[in-house]
Amino acid sequence: MSVEVAVVREADDEVVEALARLLPQLSSTAGPLDHEAVRRLLASTANTLVAARIEGEVVGMLTLVVFPLPSGPRARIEDVVVDEAARGHGVGRALTEEALRLAEAAGARTVDLTSRPSRQAANRLYERLGFRARGSKVYRFVLKR
């Protein structure tokens, strides 16, 4: 099985349907995205949505966020999701390697990501790719809507 990765450029039916299928596997609280929400995501100059396909079907995605800081350009990998049926076939590796390539091309000094401890396979992959755990805590403040 060959994994092909590419930057998503359009909010077409395939991408919207793939996100509808994949996002619930990532988050129980993420709501569905319609075409307009995907257009906004893709229109942001900070975001790059990367999709992985096996035999033409989207089986995984991630978002690379690159942003300037006073200490230099940085990047984050967010919302990595691989379809349960496609796990163990190199999809996560292909997506992450492409995100690292894109971050380097954009001039980022570092690339951060977070992963829950329960995602043991994903954490092993990130460590094999050279990511190292940092001695910091992640804090979250939930804004009221």
The gist of it:
By secondary structure, the protein is of the alpha+beta class. It contains 4 helices and 5 strands; from the N terminus they run βααβββαβα.
How would you sum up this structure, described in words?
The protein is α+β, with helices and mostly antiparallel strands. The N and C termini lie far apart (43 Å). The protein has a 5-stranded mixed sheet, sandwiched between helices. The longest helix is centred in the C-terminal third of the chain and has 15 residues, at 91-105. The chain has 4 helices and 5 strands, in the order βααβββαβα.
Write the layout of secondary structure elements.
Layout: E1 3-7, H1 13-26, H2 35-43, E2 47-54, E3 57-67, E4 74-82, H3 91-105, E5 110-113, H4 120-128
Parallel strand pairs: 4-5
Antiparallel strand pairs: 1-2, 2-3, 3-4
Helix count, DSSP H or I runs of 4 or more residues:
4
What is the CA–CA distance across the termini?
A: 43 Å
The coarse overall form would be globular
The largest sheet has its strands arranged as 1-2-3-4-5
Mean pLDDT: 94
* Uncertain runs: none
Gyration radius from CA atoms, angstroms:
15 Å
Query: Main sheet?
Result: 5 strands, mixed
Structural class: alpha+beta
- Count the beta strands: 5
The share of residues in helices is 25-40%
Portion in beta strands = 25-35%
**Order of SSEs:** EHHEEEHEH
Record keyword descriptors for this entry.
4 helices; 5 strands; alpha+beta; 145 residues; 5-stranded mixed β-sheet
